[in-house]
Amino acid sequence: MTCTPGTAPEPHSCGTLADHLRDCLGRKSVRLGCEDGVCGSCTVLLDGRTARACTIVAGQAEGLPVRTAEDPGDPLMRHLREVLWAEHAFQCGFCAAGFLMEIHALLGELPDPTEEQVRHRLAGNLCRCTGYESIVRATLIAARTWTAAPPQRPAGDVPPSVPAATTDPAIGTSALRAEDRTVLDGRARFVADLDRPGTLHARFVRGTRPHARITGLGLAAARTAPGVVAVLTAADLNGTLNPIGIACPLEGYTAPAFAPLAEDRVRFEGDPVALVVATGQAEAEHAAALVDVGYEDLPPVLDARAGADGAHPPLFPDLDGNVLYTEHRLHGDVTGAFARAARVVRHRLRQERVQNAPLEPRGGLASYNPGTGRLTYDVASQSPTSHRQYLSDVLGLRLDLVRVRVPPNMGGSFGIKGGVFREDIAVCWASRHLGRPVRWIEDRREHLTAAGQARGEEIDVEAALGADGELLALRADLVVDQGAYPVPPIASAVFVAIVGCLIPNAYRLPAYEFTGRLTLTNRAPYVAYRGPWEMATFAAERTMDLVARAVGEEPSDYRLRHLAPVDGPDPRMVTGALLTDVPALGSTLLRARQEAAVEEFRARQAAARAQGRLLGLGIATLLEPAPGPWSLHEAMGAHMGPEPVRVLFAPDGRAQIRTGQIPHGQGHVTTLGQIAATTLGLPLDAVDVVHGDTDLVPYSLAGTGASRAAALAGGGVLRASRTLRANLLMAVARRTGHPALDLDVVAGRVVDRRTGRTVGAVADLAAACVADEGERARLDVSELFDSEETGWAEATHCCWVEIDPGLGTVAVDRYLVVADSGRIINPAVADGQLRGGAVQGIGTVLQERSAYAPDGTQLSRDLTEYLLPTTRTAPPIDIVHLESRRTGDVPFRGLGEGGAVLAPSAVVGAVEDALAHLGVRLTERHLPPWRVLDLLVAHRIPTPVPEYR
What does the alpha-carbon distance between residue 665 and residue 414 come to, in Å, rounded to a whole number? Predict the structure, then answer.
């Protein structure tokens, strides 16, 4: 099917072709991720060629055929959908339709492309989840298996190129992702796709100064603009809301009280000042531009360390200073260790601020019912129960009068959508105030400047060494830049605490002292990003490299001789966290060292240097809390709580999982379904996963994050499914007279094990039992699963680079991940998580930076200024899973954060290794070409520096 934009009324009034396709023709697969033509999510086929619909005026396309993912498609389109699904090409799927269009055009022009041609052509389409390898692989397979007249298959059949194991729901097989069908045919629904009758559209007016007093608001022009329903300011909200606060279990944490809209001053560029509500999005944006804000500039606080040292007055009147939290921990005799040290190595490590940058920005649709007094908020959120709690508290509504729902699809998050934002509260207040639904969808500029930014920490490290280079003690002094406002529900002080606990990592460390401070500045708020404790790993791994070079030892060997023992009766980190869940600490490091063939590489490196080439190898290792044992949370002083799940049989006899986990690319529907299906003896498509609706799912304040899904939710589903299976067989025994011990479930049927005869289909028997009031409760099992028996994942990354000495560019020639996350539920899903995380980590070193000018003005305002990895810059990544056996009955461990956490250390280590003979020692993480060139110019010395013994 094709559509002609000119067939709908007044295409010119829609603005862009993307607006027309979405709003007039209902083609929601045309996604808006940047509105600058950079991300490719809006790609369509216009007159047979790919086009970015967000950059084309609707009238320009009048009369031309337009194809989108909703079209049934020609045989090639159908073939692409099947192969992309079979190859686990996508995760959250926000980018999927755009890639589908681009790949279709590519294979139409080049039926047999090379990998280089595929990577070159797809470089204009961004994906934040996958790392691109699965998309490139699927494209090459689609080309190889495509013929002009392929055999006809029923819709939904798996193409013959797919291994049979991928249709098997058993744990340990790459079962096809249940989530992927809708994103490939246009049926997926993200938050911007939701609508209700009478919906109004919201646009925030944002501060344009990093720190300034508001001297006046000119609202008249905006309030009289066409379509405007209301222009709201802090004065309208005053007295109707409770202050936004953050509860924190850590002693000494103090947060300011603040409101959804800035009243007397703006504290960062992007601070919301007013909210315009209008009948259409274009009208709201036009009116917002008419609001005139008067400013009197104030000195900005841009240096977190200076702010922590009291060099600036408090940014909030209810605070005595700008330090929100200070932590100090001391383990062992640090003073004595430094007194007897043969050598002390000191360095200050710094990380630039970066972005989570999911392709789907934040957004929500608030619907207040004046008749019932009930608020429903549909929001892209990792933690709908947190949203519900905060909306109830701040708006002053009873908890039962607030319902929060997550849309069927969410376009990534990586931590940022775990926050409850001031914008959420303002939009919900507007809906209650106006008595109509109000929808807010931020654009990419808002997201990059105002949603929040991550990392940006600075840490001073001192290492006391013995005569043979043995690590005697560490001192670490961390400063975390909170930005201008805390972001509920989790106080950033928790991240300071976990960094302090995890710096010792897997290493034997007799003594350790840590000081950490959380400081307000006039930057965008600090938010969690895929392993918010990443600075602990960066500090540990950079220190191991720098110390190894200082003592002249191969860095991987230095790590191996410092690994903590785990074979004693009570093995612990120096900070107190138990290591009993680690069966063979260092197994990934040993395997990675073997795969890397370090000695052979050193010979190649020396030969390359003689030719003027710069090769480097970085190896970094970590213990990842996945989600970590109780003892780690006790050492931190904070715990995110247990994970509740329900597994039940619905009235129609289908198995159902109800979980507080929120899938947004991780494959939770598939992996949790696999656990239940395997345990219950059912096919995967007989299990439904219900999530994201606070009226239906168990209460879980933490939601998705901290690697909780596989270990905690998966553990809960495993145990609840075992109980449900036993209860079903007992119920069937009571109904049929068969002895319960003789019954089993095989391939969706209850069978008599003695005779092999089928008693009945599980769905029919379960439906009959659920209809019996006496049996119904037994077929609805709840499990509250805690992390006492779950603990650590272990991983080692190896990165090989070559640096162009004339351009300063860093090419990642090879990348290897060796991971031990216990039993792997779905290898394809696991590999996608590791690759996607690693590419994000690589990007934060070589490309990404949220830059600020000296006056505090933000410089990374769109995706041409904030550079994300593409198919041209993301390397292929090899993965080895070790899958060691774990104690207890739940063998799964998390792995979603380790890739992003460990990759920066491996990449920085590799770049340093390439330049180490010149005397280069790296203490900053951001290494774009200009920075590498500066290092080369500064360290071009004639005498090589000794590196290793």
Answer: 10
| Helix, strand and coil percent figures for the chain, each rounded to 5 | 35, 20, 45
CA-to-CA distance for 677 and 815, rounded, in angstroms?
A: 35
Residue 4, pLDDT above cutoff 60: no
- Pair 327, 493: CB distance under 8 Å: yes
3-class SS string, 456-490: CCEEEEEEEECCCCCEEEEEEEEEEEEECCCCCCC
Residue 841: how many CA atoms within 13 Å on its side-chain side?
Answer: 34
| Dist CA 917 CA 676 (whole Å) | 55
505, two tokens = 């990592």
Q: Coil, strand or helix: which one is 57?
A: strand
- Crossing angle between the packed helical segments 668-680 and 714-736, to the nearest 10 degrees: 40
* Nearest alpha carbon to residue 765 among 743, 791, 742, 784: 743
Give the CA distances from residue 525 to residues 422, 475, 590, 817, in Å, rounded to whole numbers and listed in that order: 11, 28, 40, 32
Alpha-carbon torsion (178, 834, 585, 515), positive or negative: negative
Q: Quote the tokens at residue 250.
A: 């850590």
Encoded tokens for 216 = 């006046």
DSSP three-state, residue 811: strand
Higher pLDDT among residues 226 and 633, named by residue: 226
- Give the angle subtended at the CA of 873 by the CAs of 868 and 876, to the nearest 5°: 120
DSSP, residue by residue, 174-190: -PPPTTHHHHHHT----
Residue whose token pair is 């083609």: 27
State how far the Cα of 273 lies from the Cα of 292, in Å rounded to an integer: 11
Say if residue 946's pLDDT is above 70. no
How long a stretch of residues is the chain?
Answer: 949
- Specify the amino acid at residue 176: L
CA count, 13 A, side-chain hemisphere, 390? 29
Give the whole-angstrom CA distance, residue 205 versus residue 753.
Answer: 69
Neighbours of 510 (CB within 10 A): 17
Structure token digits, residue 565: 């023992």
Q: What kind and span of H or E run contains 354?
A: strand 353-354
CA distances (Å), origin 134, targets 24, 91, 876, 900:
34, 10, 10, 18
Eight-state DSSP code of residue 712:
I
Strands 511-520 and 471-483: parallel
Q: Are 313 and 306 in contact (CB under 8 A)?
A: no
Tokens 């096919």 map to which residue? 683
CB 869 within 8 A of CB 930: no
* Residue 584 contacts residue 571 (beta carbons within 8 Å): no
| CA angle, residues 91, 92, 97, in degrees to nearest 5 | 95
Residue type, 940: R
Asked whether 188 and 665 are in contact (CB, 8 A), the reply is no
| pLDDT for the residue numbered 14 | 63
Mean pLDDT, all residues of the chain: 93
Radius of gyration of the chain (CA): 28
Token pair, residue 621, equals 């290792």
- 545, 562 in Cβ contact below 8 A? no
Residue type at 718 in one-letter notation: L
Q: What type of residue sits at position 116?
A: E
Residues 6+ apart with CB under 8 A from 505: 536, 537, 540, 541, 573, 621, 622, 623
Q: What angle do CA 661, 664, 668 make, to 5 degrees?
A: 50
Strand partners, 217: 293
Helix residue ranges per DSSP H, 230-318: 234-237, 281-288, 304-308
Q: So what's the pLDDT on residue 253?
A: 96
Q: Which pLDDT tens digit goes with each residue over 874-903?
A: 999 999 999 988 878 889 999 989 999 999
- For 364-403, the pLDDT digits (tens) are 999 999 999 999 999 999 999 999 999 999 999 999 999 9
pLDDT range class, residue 569, cuts 50, 70, 90 = confident
Which tokens sit at 251? Answer: 């002693």
